[in-house]
Design a protein that fits this description.
single chain, 131 residues, mainly alpha, 434 Repressor (Amino-terminal Domain), 9 helices, 68% helix
């Protein structure tokens, strides 16, 4: 069965041991809205609601957006975003330089440089494999 926005929210809520009312209280989203979201009843999702749910339930925001068709799901991009969230500004700039060099290599038909491989090897495996 394919995951839907509602099933992902419901599963994450249950995994945290929360009732719909508790999730509603924590996110300041009405209980009826939580119920409608979990039922996948065609409710129009606004990005503020999605962001609140993503934060409270520790679900990747872009993954949720992809489930409702707002963005294309790109697990690799989500992994990079999660890595960036834990980096200093200097580390982010270094990563951008490495990625730019990698893109240049890819377009020239060359393999990724050793600096890129070194950087990629420092990303925890869980970040590369989890949605």
């Amino acid at each position: 069965m394919n995951a839907t926005f509602g099933t992902v929210i419901a599963d994450a809520r249950r995994n945290k041991g929360l009732s719909q009312r508790e999730l509603a209280r924590l996110t300041k989203i009405s209980n009826s809205t939580i119920s409608r979201i979990e039922a996948d009843d065609g409710i129009q999702h606004d990005t503020k609601t999605i962001a609140c749910l993503a934060e409270e339930l520790a679900i990747d925001y872009n993954y949720l957006l992809s489930l409702i068709g707002y963005v294309k799901d790109q697990p690799e991009v989500r992994a990079i975003q999660r890595a960036i969230d834990n980096m200093s500004p200097e580390q982010v700039q270094k990563m951008i330089k490495i990625l730019n060099a990698s893109f240049d290599d890819a377009f020239d038909g060359k393999k990724i440089g050793s600096d890129s491989q070194t950087f990629i090897s420092t990303i925890p495996a869980g970040l590369l494999n989890n949605p």
